[in-house]
Write a structure and sequence with these properties.
Radius of gyration: 15 Å
Strand content: 25-35%
Helix content: 10-25%
Low-confidence stretches: none
Distance between the termini: 28 Å
Mean pLDDT: 95
Number of strands: 6
Number of domains: 1
Number of helices: 1
Oligomer: single chain
Structural class: mainly beta
Largest sheet: 2 strands, antiparallel
Order of helices and strands: EEEEEEH
Bound molecules: zinc ion
Shape: globular
Length: about 70
């Protein structure tokens, strides 16, 4: 959730840490423009989810996300 210049986790409400304009904590930004095949046709939604909430959320998935170690960073 964006408010003023800050980003908050939509799930738990905490502020995403930032120092000198650089985020020192990782999070995901979701954006969806729902279309014709959706019950939300015409609606756009955005959300920010902190890493801790994402980990908890993914544990509720029936199938865990594919994960792998990157060899080049
Ligand atoms: Zn959170």
């Amino acid at each position: 959730m964006r408010k003023d210049t800050k980003v908050y986790c939509n799930c738990c409400g905490k502020e995403i840490c930032k120092r000198n304009e650089i985020y020192t904590e990782e999070f995901i930004h979701l954006k969806k423009d729902w279309g014709y095949f959706s019950e939300n046709d015409g609606l756009s939604q955005e959300a920010d989810i902190c890493e801790q909430c994402l980990i908890k959320w993914m544990k509720t998935f029936k199938y865990a996300p594919d994960s792998w170690e990157r060899t080049e960073i």
